[in-house]
# Entry
Amino acid sequence: MRYHFRDFVYYEIDSLRLAASCANLFFVSVPMVLRLLNTFSR
# Structure
């Protein structure tokens, strides 16, 4: 039981890390896209 619980915890940590990296990419790419749109609108 403890082994399966540990696997579940590791899986949760991996999914959280993946979500954090996706959010990091999102927050990095959005200002770049907005900056590109600003340069194109002028």
Summary: The chain is about 95% helix and 0% strand. The radius of gyration is 18 Å. The mean pLDDT is 90.
